[in-house]
Amino acid sequence: MKVHEKDKGRLEQLKIDCSKCSGLCCTALFFSKIDGFPENKKAGKPCTNLENNYRCKIHHELEKSNMKGCIGYDCFGADTRDTNFNNSDLREAVFLTQGQINSAKGNRNTKLPKHLDSPVTWK
């Protein structure tokens, strides 16, 4: 029996699901022409195709838009549940929502934008 057949439940957690995406890869990562993107983008700057609801406006046409880097990228199911904001200063973060913060890890030293509250689980 192969490993991927033995424990499908655990492997499902590593499957990419863009419907649960919070746009982390579209913002946190840099894009490079060398890596198959049509233009360079600095890390921390949202992709110009990322909409306010964290959805990609060209996701249905990545190949047509020459977004080879996006087609080849796999986050292995990462989302804000896997993000550790401990001691981070996020006061300038534009695209964070309360739901994303509630599902992420953080602590009392994590600084949030004024429109967000620290979850009670952050100690």
Can you put this structure into words, describing what you see?
- With 123 residues, this protein is mainly alpha-helical.
- The chain contains five helices and no strands.
- The model has no long low-confidence stretch (mean pLDDT 78).
Principal-axis shape equals globular
Q: Write down the secondary-structure element order.
A: HHHHH
Low-confidence stretches: none
Give the helix level as a range of percent.
Answer: 10-25%
Helical stretch tally: 5
Blueprint (SSEs and pairs):
Layout: H1 3-6, H2 8-12, H3 24-28, H4 68-72, H5 98-103
Features:
about 120 residues; mainly alpha; 2 domains; about 20% helix; globular
Short structural summary:
This protein folds into 2 domains: 3-72, no CATH class; 80-123, no CATH class. Helix content is 20%, strand content 0%. The protein has helices at 3-6, 8-12, 24-28, 68-72, 98-103.
